[in-house]
Every structure is written in structure tokens, then in C-alpha cells.
Amino acid sequence: MKRAGIWLILLFSLTTFSLAQEHGEASKEGGHEAVEPDMTNWKWANFAILAAALGFLIVKNAGPFFASRSIEIRKGIEDATKLRADAEARAAAMDARLANLGVEVEAMRKAAKDEAAQEGARIRQETERELAKIQTHADQEIANALKTAQIELKSYSAQLAVELARKKVRDRMTPADQDSLVQAFTADLGGSPK
User: Side-chain half-sphere of 26: how many Cα atoms within 13 Å?
Assistant: First the structure.
């Protein structure tokens, strides 16, 4: 563009200079009355040169400008088309996920119910095992308590029987019976060391 601008300025300067020189010669020739020469042809020539120079600059610079602008516009349209396709694909994916969301929620609910049922069954089994252990332990403690009570009852019964027998023996025993018992006992004691 610099080169074309320089040529345009040079051409415009030459045209102006030639017009100025011709106008100066016409003033010198006619000493008495200055007759203006007909400048119409020169004006048209100057206009043609100026139009040609402008046309040249427009053709030279406008083509690449419009071509690059056209490429930018096409690229923008292609980018917009890609973005639109991506957005539509994302929207379709989101729609599909939303459509499947009910199914996924239902599946999650079913899985949670199944898991809760399994956990409930596991807890029931564990509770039954613990109850069985507690029952067994309670049965053992009851059996032990029963044995202890039976032993204590037998011991108490034996004590009562001994006390009752002692009381009966005392009630029936006379002083003569007591003397004979003591003599038999001492006789046993005297004869036992051998």
C-alpha cells in the first residue's frame, strides 16, 4: 500500500504541476488581456488519472481485504456451527440423562430397599443368635441355681432332721440312759488305743 500511495501522490503532483505550468504560459502570452485557456480537457484528464489511481488502489487493496474478511466470516460461521452442534449434543445428553433420571432414582430406591431388607435380615439373625446365647446362659444359670438350691435344701433338711432327731433323743433320754451312754463311750475310748 505504501508503494501505491507514493505512485498516487507522484501522479497527482505531476498533474497539478502540468496544469499550473500551462496556466502560467497562457498568462505570459497574452500581454493585454488574459484569456483563460479552455481547461476542460485537462480537468477531465486529471479526473481520469485520479479515478484510475483510486480504482487501482481499490482493486489492489479491496480484493485481499474482502477475501480475508470473507475467510473470517466463514471461519466465524464454522465456529458458530461447531459450537451449536456441541451445545445441541450436550443438550441431548442432558435430556437423555434427565429421561433416565427417573429410572436411576427407581433403581436406587430398589437397591436401598433391598439393602435395608438384607440388613434387617442380618440384624434379625444376629438378634436370634444373641437371644439363643442369652437363653442358653439363662438356662445354665437356672440349672446351677436349682442345683445350689437343691444342695442347700438337702443340707437344711439334713440339719432339720438332725435337730429333730436330737430333740427326740433328748426328750426320750432319761438320766439313766445318759449314764449308760457315757460309760459305753468311755469304755470305747479306753479300749481303742492298741
Answer: 12
C-alpha cell at 81: 456451527
CA angle at residue 68 from 66 to 73, to 5 degrees?
90
Rounded Cα gap, residues 115 and 109, in angstroms: 10
Cα separations (Å) of 109 from 91, 95, 119?
A: 27, 22, 15
Q: Using CB atoms within 10 A of its CB, is residue 56 exposed (0-12), middle (13-18) or buried (19+)?
A: middle
Q: What's the CA angle centered on 124, arms 118 and 129, to 5 degrees?
A: 125
Tell the burial category of 157 from Cβ atoms under 10 Å away from its Cβ (0-12, 13-18, 19+): exposed
Dihedral sign for Cα 73, 79, 80, 81, please: positive
One-letter identity of residue 69: R
pTM over 0.85: no
pLDDT tens for the 194 residues of the chain, in order: 566 667 767 766 776 666 655 555 555 555 555 556 677 888 888 888 888 888 888 888 887 888 888 899 999 999 999 999 999 999 999 888 888 888 888 888 999 999 999 999 999 999 999 999 999 998 998 999 989 988 988 898 889 888 888 888 878 878 887 788 888 888 888 765 54
| CB distance 62 to 28 below 8 Å | no
